[in-house]
Amino acid sequence: MKVIVTGGAGFIGSALIRYLIKNTDCTVLNLDKLTYAGNPDNLKEVETSPRYSFIQCDICDSGKVAEIFRDFAPDSIMHLAAESHVDRSIDSPLEFVRTNVMGTANLLNCALNYYSMLPEEKKNKFRFQHISTDEVYGSLGKEGFFTETTPYDPKSPYSASKASSDHMVRAWGHTFKLPVLISNCSNNYGPYHFPEKLIPLIILNALDGKPLPIYGKGDNVRDWLYVEDHARALWLINRQGVPGETYNIGGNNERTNLEVVETCCAILDELRPKAESYSKQITFVADRPGHDLRYAIDSSKLQKELNWVPQTDFDTGLRETVKWYLENEWWWKPIREKNYSGERLGKGGK
Ligand code: NAD
Ligand code: DAU
């Protein structure tokens, strides 16, 4: 089976490719533009596999995407390429519209052209799988969960662009009968997470003796999922999901941001002790503009229909993640020195 993964040099895309190479016999082509978030080092564990290849390509480039589809002849496209950081979407929203909306529409168009030329037997196997976020559903109060039928209510330029891309995918499925699958997942964490996102930023700032920035009061709630559990869910959906359907994926690990940061500090206190607790570095800073209060996913459809359950609980996964950052300075040091050194993003107010 031949699979194209878009955004395969990013955090989740690379976890997915590592999973596919190690656990299936798929041949995988990674199609990635290599933005600031794309890093070939994320694929070191599999880059020598004869079943892995990489092409640098912008998903907005229709000529090149069409050529890649024709030459590689995929059985599936797993689409993860995106601008993914809410804070950056506050600073540069149009880049999010370009990649997430226009890029997805371009991929769909190229996929449809390719699909329409396939023989019937290959058509039956083909899937266009779109990887999306729980943020499309908006923000919850203290109670309740997002289900697959929760109305869309995106609130940031990032989530609005992802919601838009979900609508495009459904439209291509409905109108042109392209066999599409969509999943909406909660916050991922784990190894190779780009250090501008909360958990890696906190670990690396803590080790550098820098402030640990908590937006607002730290009472916003996210539902955390270990990235390898997400990769496994994505492949299960690809193989067993029903075309046209949507699946929510979540970790059932709700934590306030303050709890997450305090737990990171406690793990670091144990694994890399110093005179004073890392928690002394916690600093409350101005809130993210339009900060969503709470996300929580009801993933019972995926659990019941496809028999998926997350295998890593938050405490185990977070400890593994902290250990991974302690042991893999080779990965994060060049990023912190050259690409992103921990400065505040997305303050807004321009
Ligand atoms: P990431 O920012 O780590 O990686 C994104 C990848 O896409 C990078 O390798 C980048 O180079 C590539 N890319 C960006 N623009 C591109 C373009 N125009 N053409 C080709 N490649 C391009 O993101 P991530 O955290 O791995 O997220 C992957 C996907 O999963 C995204 O679609 C995101 O919306 C979704 N998602 C993320 C999370 C999360 O917690 N990180 C949760 C739910 C859903
Ligand atoms: O819910 C899924 C989404 O999770 C994905 O779709 C996004 O791609 C992914 O980036 C993530 O979005 P968040 O905005 O939730 O992730 P982030 O790590 O930026 O922030 C997590 C929470 O921590 C959020 O409430 C903001 C807060 N935060 C973040 C940073 C970077 C802080 O308090 N301080 C910080 O310095």
Kindly describe this structure:
By secondary structure, this protein is of the alpha/beta class. It has helices at residues 11-23, 62-72, 86-91, 93-116, 120-125, 157-176, 198-207, 227-240, 257-271, 300-306, 314-327, 329-339; strands at residues 2-6, 27-32, 52-56, 76-79, 127-133, 180-185, 187-189, 212-215, 221-226, 246-249, 254-256, 282-285. The strands form 3 sheets. A 7-stranded parallel sheet has the order 3-2-1-4-5-6-10, sandwiched between helices. A 3-stranded mixed sheet has the order 7-9-11. The protein has a two-stranded parallel ribbon with strand order 8-12. The mean pLDDT is 97. The site of nicotinamide-adenine-dinucleotide (NAD) has 30 residues, from helix 1, helix 4, strand 5 and strand 7.
Short description:
With 350 residues, the protein is an alpha/beta fold. Helices cover 43% and strands 16% of the residues.
Distance between the ends: 49 Å
Measured as a percent range, the helix fraction is 40-55%
Integer-rounded radius of gyration? 20 Å
Major sheet attributes: 7 strands, parallel
Topology order in helix (H) and strand (E) letters = EHEEHEHHHEHEEHEEHEEHEHHH
Question: What compounds are bound to the protein?
Answer: nicotinamide-adenine-dinucleotide, 2'deoxy-thymidine-5'-diphospho-alpha-D-glucose
Catalogue the unreliable spans: none
Counting helices, strands and paired strands, the structural category is alpha/beta
Count of separate DSSP helical elements: 12
Principal-axis shape equals globular
> Oligomer, anyone?
single chain
Mean pLDDT: 97
How much beta, percentage-wise? 15-25%
In spatial order, strands of the major sheet run 3-2-1-4-5-6-10
How many extended strands?
A: 12
